[in-house]
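2 proteins. here.
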Amino acid sequence: MKRLVRIAVVGAAMALALTACAPAGGSSGDNASGSSETALYGGTITTAAASDPETFDPAVCTGATCWNIMRMVFDRLYDYDGDTSNLKLQAAEDFPQVSDDGLTYTMKLKEGLTFSNGAPVTAADVAYSYARVLDPATKAGLAEFWKGIAGAEEYAANPTGLPSGIKVIDDLTLSVTLDAPNSAFKYIMAMPAGSIIPEGSGSTVATAPIGSGPFTLADFTPGQQVMLDRNPSYWDSPRPYADHVHMILGVDPDNQVLMLQKGDIDLMGSPIPPAKFVQITTDPKLKDQVISIDKPSTYYLTMNMNTAPFDNPKVREAISYAFDRDSLLKLVNGQGTPATEFIPPGVLGHSGDDLTHGKDVDKAKQLLADAGYPNGFDTQMYAWNVAPFSALAPQMQQDLKDIGITVDLQTLAPNTFAELAGSGKAPLALTFWVADYPEGSDFLQALLSCATAVPQGQNFAYYCNEQMDSDVQQALSASDESVAAEKYLEATKVMLADNPVVPLYFGTKTEIRGANIGGYYPQPIWAWDMAYYWKTDGSAERQ
């Protein structure tokens, strides 16, 4: 799959990037971390968020606040299991049957599923949900993931019926045919845009969502609250355990910390503010509530290869020797590990090999001289104006000065940054990416393919190497994960030899949960798994 710009999802990524990937092979949820080992019933789980959800439409949702709500209100055919990146069955009866050529996926729904309004969930609903992602009128933020479906382009030009690649076989069975093999498609169906809504409800889902998930939307008061109620007809009984989820809106991260410490909220929708990090992580009273986790994410610097002098390979190589990753990590409270390649741990294609360059000022200066810049040059670097970028960028500016490059540092609001870097106006851009799913194509293809080297794409380096693209496509076509991993490694080596980016570190996150939340575990791809959490002052039986 190929993805273009997703400006709003950068907001989701910020909350998720600084949130969680737990160790592989963890809990399924019922007895995960928490002060109570046995699930209890009833009560209200209270959370806080800095911003309102921009929509309740799963095809359009890309922001952090609505991302969490999507998992509560809707089902998808597949979901992620507990604190792992492994898929599990959700609305589907079984994992997809894939044709020998890798093009056609056939899925069957569980029998007896109903939406919260009592209507049955059918294959026609799934087909409709997938098709509307490809309808330009929907304005789906992540439609690019779905454009590998056969007939997607023709459907976008004339969105009537279904794309030729989506077929309803019977009430519970549908098939999806792709233009090319894509082993990541099973993960794409587990993304928010894969959420199932009733056929024909696209005009109302943004404000009055109907799903088959564990909760239903009870109230949304902009700037104040979102209230969700337990769906009593939810198929996965006895979940959800809590009766309600109350999301308080417009609460900045500092106040979220105070509210959690006072017991006013159970979970924070924002990362721990950097200024409070040491205080929280060293407080012995909070020891049992602090969780440190890895996150499948990479923080990196891009060099725009369409802009001189970054069209010169020796200049790009010189910059790859400019940074001390350990020193950079100290500026972000050690929330990460030095990047040794581009694809992070926990994602298929991460090799564990050290493929990056350490800091070497003399070598960098020599490479600049060899490139025709013995006295260095002046350039611009763009970064977000929030943590962790506000801490990293000034040090990187100094590191580049040490090798002879004078940088005019411009810090911007996240959306402004994404628009400018996506338009190709950023010679250097400090950015990051969080896994949408645990396959290397989500990094190499989404961020560095020829298809994404276009205005408003996410390929800020405007990098294009057909050999890398070919290696990635071979990885996606492989039925054997070991073969796919080898092709991703080959693709990574091709890309890093060209130095369009400098991988800096793989992200981790430390988060804090409330003392009265049970069953809590972080989810690597999503943030919360609210159906599996409970209040420790709840009842032993459903009231």
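next one coming up
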Amino acid sequence: MTPAARDRAAVRRVLVRLLLGGLAAAVAALPFLAAWQHRADRLAVEDQARPPAAPPAAGAPAARDLPRGTGPVVLAYHDVRPDGERPYTVTPTAFEGHLAALRSAGYRTLSTAEFVRHLRGEPVPGRTVYLTFDDGAQGLWRHADRSLARYGMRAAVYLITGQVGERHGYYLSWEEVRRMASSGRWDFQSHTDDLHRHLPLDAAGARRGPALTERLWLPAESRRETSAEYRARVAADLDRSIGAITAHGLPRPLLFAYPFSESHGSGPAGAGDLSGLLRQRFTAALTNHGGPHPPGAGARAAAEGTVQRLEITTGTTAADLMAGLAERTPRRPGDAPRPLADPGGWDFPGAPAGTGVGAFTGAGPYPAGREHLSAEYRPSATADWTGYAADADVRALHADTNGVSVTVRVHGTRPVAVALSRAGLRVTEGTGSGRRTVARARLEPAARHTLRIVVSARSTDVYVDGRRRARVAVPADAAAGARGGIALGVRNDGAPHWPAFRTLTIAAADGTWGPGGTADARPGPVRTTGQGATGGPAPTTGPAEAARERTSR
């Protein structure tokens, strides 16, 4: 090899070494670059977008008749951005419309601390809502924050803490969380650390379930988790979530929101284990799945440890929001003195379309081929009713082939149903297999009877034609869950006509229905004889009730 060739080979070797050294340095630096980028994402702060123009005032007419000071409605949002995932993203313009409607209708927003105090029994003045946002999407910083500032409102974010700073552009960063908290408009609660996902429940992975509520498949051991392993895994995640929030200088979270609103698992490590873990750490848990008539955010929900929310989606308009508030806003017994005069407030479970209150008042029409109809009065808004009296004048009773029923404490833990016919009375308590007959009585046969049911925290008293026929005591430890409004039933098993509620009135029982100016709710024995249960006289009829009695004859 010539000297020139040797020189060129040496140069090539140096260049190769330099290239390999550079590649090695780059590879070695990748973890550090990734860590730097990860830290940058977790601390990054995006620019906030200018909020859209404020829409014209809306919503006041829909809320004009809503009561004040009865308790908040909880609203469940997810994200606010112009082009997010349907159906859980609300556009900035729609969000502005919601806030404008709330302000126009006189609503104010609660902090989580205020809401928790309400759950613990502290009344809240005026019309209130508790705004919640699940997941911790970045649209809350970019789009929702300045809208809240415009209207002087506040909200709570339920963070998936393990996702904060991940996929920046979708989830919030910790620096954005810090700035939101320092504004005073936001507080932060728990939505798990890393259990907002579905994972395999069997070897093939064909069955998947929520990681929070299900015992997961352990592939290394070819089995599902035991109950103990499930509890340990979930407890560790909840503690990581709480720790992540407090480690960033934020108050310890008071509330929890179920991922996917799933609160029950399918195995033995299901609702009981999870409920216990949550109650050890949080005042209550929030969900959007409450059946057809979820209770409001009051004593019954607090006793159950689960608060139902009104879910807001892409298509929710300001009018839809106000209608939802009208349905869910808690009402006092005195707010609905004559429920049959509020035909839009009744639900008719299982009844054909077109069924209305006329089927209960004698005006008709009556659906063909039906022998029984039932109706519930604003079950969501009356979920926390107690301390009230239902007073009914029942007509057109015929032999034993037709009759009526009135149920109080509807959807609570101890509903009481009173079935009344021309010559008989039956009082039951409970639901399903736990339902029991409390009293039966024979009545003087008549086509008309008057019925009064007095509901208090301690008892349910039943009066027919001025005579007390039954008293159903409520155990002290069951009082919070034994709340609820009223439902009616009418039955026709071949009579020439349906029975009818000539009048139905509801009044607050406080200071009205018992001797000495207080609700007569003291538990006492009821004697049962061959003629049925008997008791003392009904409370004295007041002037208003006497006037109604005269006009109904």
